[in-house]
Specification:
- Helix content is 37%, strand content 3%.
- 20% of the residues are buried.
- It binds heme C (HEC).
């Protein structure tokens, strides 16, 4: 009997806790600071939403993600390039790919079509020296602004071409990265890039960037 009472009391506590969690998440109460995970959307009671299907109903949308889908999205290549895939590409191959898949938006010489399509190339002497804080109108290009060559690969592979992101092979992405870096005088015009040689490329203004540990205050 005593045992049954304890269980009833516990159920009461859990029910209250659930309601509090639900109201906190719908009123934007912020993430718990003690490491407790936020309520999962799949468990959300749709009845608490004005105009929803009614109390106790679940939206029933979304689904699981399998490892294959995750692997296709898991492309992050950081500044040190540790995650760079095997493969290789030359400046000449990148030149042909650029003309076929990139120039229609970024221009034949990477001059862009502002404001929609950003300029990629051009080492205008006036824009050298990283003086963007004193003159925000100076054009940002890969050669005068980009911090790490490795993340250029990451960006192109993940996001370009804009109409078909993710469609480029690793070899094509190496080639395009090589072409853009060569056109901005960062590497030689006859260069071939692979994981090791891309990691070794130092961008002209890399030392203007500091790692951000996402904590308030000056970087350590
Ligand atoms: C349909 C138009 C379109 C095509 C084609 C296209 N891009 Fe882009 N690209 C964009 C737009 C728009 C942005 C800006 C995206 C943003 O800021 O969110 C961009 C941004 C970029 C950037 C980042 C520029 C920066 O400094 O912020 C790079 C690098 C780039 N594109 C490379 C390429 C390459 C390489 C190709 C060819 C494989 C390509 N793009 C094809 C539209 C296009």
């Amino acid at each position: 009997m005593k045992h049954a009472l304890v269980i009833t009391a516990l159920v009461g506590v859990v029910a209250c806790g659930g309601n509090e969690a639900a109201s906190a998440s719908t009123t934007g109460g912020g993430a718990p600071t003690d490491g407790t995970p936020l309520a999962r959307f799949a468990d959300h009671d749709a009845g608490t939403v004005p105009g929803g299907p009614g109390a106790g109903a679940r939206y029933g949308i979304g689904g699981g993600v399998d490892r294959k889908q995750l692997a296709a999205m898991d492309l992050d290549i950081g500044a040190d390039g540790a995650e760079l895939p095997t493969g290789r590409g030359t400046v000449a191959q990148g030149d042909a790919l650029y003309k076929a898949q990139c120039a229609m938006c970024h221009g034949q010489k990477g001059e862009g079509m502002e404001p929609a399509f950003p300029r990629l190339l051009g080492r205008d002497p006036a824009a050298e020296g990283f003086k963007f804080a004193t003159d925000p109108k100076l054009p940002h290009t890969i050669g005068n602004y980009w911090s790490h060559a490795t993340t250029l690969f990451d960006y192109i592979k993940r996001a370009m071409p804009h109409t078909a992101p993710g469609s480029l092979t690793d070899d094509q992405t190496y080639a395009l990265t090589a072409y853009l870096l060569a056109m901005d005088d960062v590497i030689a015009d006859d260069a071939t890039l692979d994981a090791a040689s891309l990691r070794a490329v130092k961008m002209p203004y890399a030392d203007r960037y500091v790692p951000d540990d996402r904590r308030p205050g000056p970087a350590k």
